[in-house]
Structure prediction request, 206 residues.
Amino acid sequence: MRRAPLLGVLCSGRGTNLQALLNAARAGRLPARVAVVLSDRAGAYALTRARRAGVAAHVVDPKAFATRAQFERALMRRLQAHRVRLVCLAGFMRVLSPVFVRRYRGRLLNIHPALLPAFPGAHAVRDALAWGAKVTGVTVHFVDEQVDHGPILLQEAVAVRPGETEASLLARLHRVEHRLYPKAVRLVLEGRLRVRGRVARAYRKA
Ligand code: GRF
Prediction:
């Protein structure tokens, strides 16, 4: 029997997207298994979610390393030890270096709470509201050497309602994220994507 491809998920915080991936895998909606969760923060609730699901969870504390290169080598060692094929960034609040990105090119995904290239960065929801955007959304993309920049796999728009607060908008964006991320991971694992330059296209397998 073929073994399910293994995912590594990198988180810094609550881990609701991690939970969505765990749930999808458990329900058979994702042809994969989450093998390891890594966090740069010891207090990340994502670690608790992983352990509850019986998944290996490790803190890789950047402060324990003299350089970013050493920190990233520690991340890569963990991913390799768990034979991870695809790496999902899910609220991982660190920029990965080109060395890491090249090592996992085409196998490194991120989810962002805006319609890229609008509102990149760590405050996408707040920025969209402050800008007065009427529509924002969610993007799942491959990670390249620039922040929130690589080829887009999936996007979905979310309307900004009158009187919207950051919390209310974030809650609706999260609902979309939790549906979109497992779907994007499935597309990659099923090999149903062609990437030419910046443009990733999904197609049906014959
Ligand atoms: C999500 O909104 C994601 O788009 C962004 O970070 C947030 C992580 O949330 N990259 P969670 O930790 O998955 O709940």
Notes: The chain has one domain: 6-202.
